[in-house]
Structure prediction request, 374 residues.
Amino acid sequence: MNYVFSFFILGGILAAAVNGRIDVITTAAMTSAGSAVERAITLIGIVSLWLGIARVAEKSGLIDTLSWVIAPFFRWLFPSIPKGNPALGSILMNLSANMLGFGNAATPFGLKAMQELQKINKDPDTASEAMCTFLAINTSSVTLVPATLIALRASAGSKNPSEVMGAVILATTCSTLVAIIGDLVMRTINRKGKSK
Amino acid sequence: MTAEMLGESFSWFIPGLIFIVFFHGHIKKVRVFEVFVEGAQEGFLMAVKLIPYLIGIYVAVGIFRESGAVGILVKILSPILKVIKAPSDALFLSIVRSLSGPAALSMTMEIFDMHGPDSFIGRLASTMLGSSDTTFYVIAVYFGSVGIRKTRYAIPIGILADFTSFVASVYIVRKVFL
Prediction:
């Protein structure tokens, strides 16, 4: 992450100098800092709301029931998470929200899942295997119904706004599969490196 | 299925979910209000802790986006475009997509306005937007929220997934709609 951060900032400033638009950097930095806080304020409300609801579902045993249903599939994806760990429920909720295209509801569950995964992480400084797998699935986006996208197409006057759904599902399946396989390969390589 | 029907069933989903959660909680004699507040409190602290990470990633991405660096990256990567026969606007969108959701959304709207949503590039932009995520934001926020500093192979895998979604979108849209 540190390299990426430096790359964006240093690369951006150098590129602006080359492109002769060094003046935009100051504005960009200030505006971005401001909009980050605006975004965070909205996020506070949404995260609090969903984690409140999630806590009710957790206490009533609803999440346990759900996690039990998908447990076999998750055991294969996340072999390092012990059975019945609350992380599984949060991961499930995060992925379902993502699949249905509710990005705003997905983030709180994603954060909660990370917190649960951190509790069973042996080295709190370093990402665990389960975290990497979870992020791989998340960044590759598992969309089944791109709700926002269809609305956007409809408002732009498309004759058939949902015609791209098939293509989206195919493309996202490809990228998710590649991410899962890539994650599996990296996991295996890393384990071998450690045992030497 | 028409888009309206889809939209209709969607507007039921969240209310239905909230209803089921509280109904089930009530039956199981959970003290719903207190438990809700407890969870919300946790969410509140979590979101507040996140603010510095958000500022960091927004500033870095903002500088990168406004500087024209994406244009330079597209130029460097243009040989790949020839191989997979993709327009350079699409690659531009693909890079912006992994940096910022709102920026990618407004770029897609621009493409719709210029070429129409049912043009090749319009469909391609739609497919790309739907099949990838804001990789750097997700990684920074998720890892940041629990204080992970060494992200190991998460970033390369994220970039790999974005690139796959770009190539797959071009290929699929070409096959299906041309």
About this structure: Helices of chain B lie at 3-27, 32-66, 69-84, 88-99, 101-115, 120-131, 135-145, 154-177.
